[in-house]
Amino acid sequence: MIETDGKPVISVEHVSKRYGNFVAVQDVSFEIRRGEFFSMLGPSGCGKTTMLRMIAGFEDVTSGSLKLDGVDVVGVPPYRRAVNTVFQNYALFPHLSVFDNVAFGPRIRALESGQLERRVREMLDVVRLGDFADRMPSQLSGGQRQRVALARALVNNPSALLLDEPLSALDAELRRQMQIELKRIQRDVGITFVFVTHDQEEALTMSDRIAVMSKGRLEQVGTPEEIYDEPSSAFVARFIGSANLIPVVVERAAAGRATLRLPGGRLGDVATGGRSFAAGAPAVLMIRPERLEVGPHEPPPERLGLPVTCTDLVFQGALLRCALRDQSGGELIDYLEASRQQPGVRPGASLWVSWERDAARLLHPDS
Question: Exposure of 114 by Cβ count < 10 A (0-12 exposed, 13-18 middle, 19+ buried)?
Fold first, then answer.
């Protein structure tokens, strides 16, 4: 992770946004540190782009406080905020060269010509387009146009750069390349990036921290590792990576542990993760596919497990996707190494799936 000074460059405090009776963002609070790559992640319509537009000043805040560098900017127009935005379509000037596109902002600010030339050349070198200064946008690839848009947004040295799904128009391979390139550029310039995406791979690949949103609410903020390994809700577990969510019933809970009734009636014991669960209440046991083991034999007592039936086995290159069904009809997924023999694992086979007790997370069901 990039080193930061620990001070927030952006503070969002109980911010809400309403359009008539529709609530797009509801009581959201978080801080974005100086120098970090921060992603807002969630499905379409969750409020992430609305939140970004409020930070940029393109949308008014209905209630709450929004601070940039410690100053409340609610009501301050976009051109008076020390942030720049890169949009999905890049919005380059088609009649200007790469150099002149990047130089547009410094010229508006009447930067001295020698300093302007130096600053633009430096920024083109950062985005690896130093040899493309005289080209027109129509002569560039999609990835190159995106880097021009980045250079134009960064050349004025904003406190934060806001990026609204800038990779969405790129093909899959170029998109993967640009994920790495964006992170490199962010590290080189040391400016806070606020990145909006619905793509979990993008968020996990590039982010120092991630804010997961759903239905206008903030579900969780944390590092990629925290979001993946310690999801705060069934929604987060399901949205970030693949997750097996097993419905269970809490038999009893005390001292940070809970005894569960698993599908088929078996009992198991897991940590509650600091959450409160009442006896008799429904819950969800989350296990990532890579933490499962599947085989023909009942697991030893120190592991939790379920009898299952293999319903499908799909070759996916280095992995085999093994689909399983438990006794209550619930579906689970395990990923197996394609290069290793899997004794007895075949469609229709009766098997056991098991996991270490600390591999599972007990969560409340989605409301």
Answer: exposed
Q: Tokens in use for 188?
A: 């080189």
CATH T-level topology, domain 8-237: Rossmann fold (3.40.50)
The strand pairing partners of 252, in sequence order, are 259
Question: pLDDT tens for residues 326-351?
Answer: 988 899 999 988 888 778 899 999 99
Q: Is the pLDDT of residue 88 over 50?
A: yes
Closest CA to 8 of 28, 33, 29: 33
**DSSP assignment, residue 129?**
-
Structure tokens at 155: 């050349």
User: Looking at per-residue confidence, does 142 or 33 come out higher?
Assistant: 33
Task: Tell me which DSSP letter residue 300 carries.
Answer: P
Distance (Å, whole) CA 25 – CA 212: 13
The CATH H-level superfamily of 242-363 is Nucleic acid-binding proteins (2.40.50.140)
The residue type found at 290 is: E
> Of 84, 186, 174, nearest to 126 (Cα)?
186
Question: Looking at the predicted structure, is the pLDDT value of residue 54 above 90?
Answer: yes
Cα–Cα distance between 63 and 16 in angstroms, integer? 5
What dihedral angle (degrees, nearest 10) is formed by the CA atoms of 103, 120, 97, 146?
-100
- Least Cα distance to 352 among 314, 318, 309 occurs for 309
262: three-class secondary structure by DSSP? coil
Question: Which regions of the chain carry the CATH code 3.40.50.300?
Answer: 8-237
Q: Identify the sign of the CA torsion 132, 138, 144, 148.
A: positive
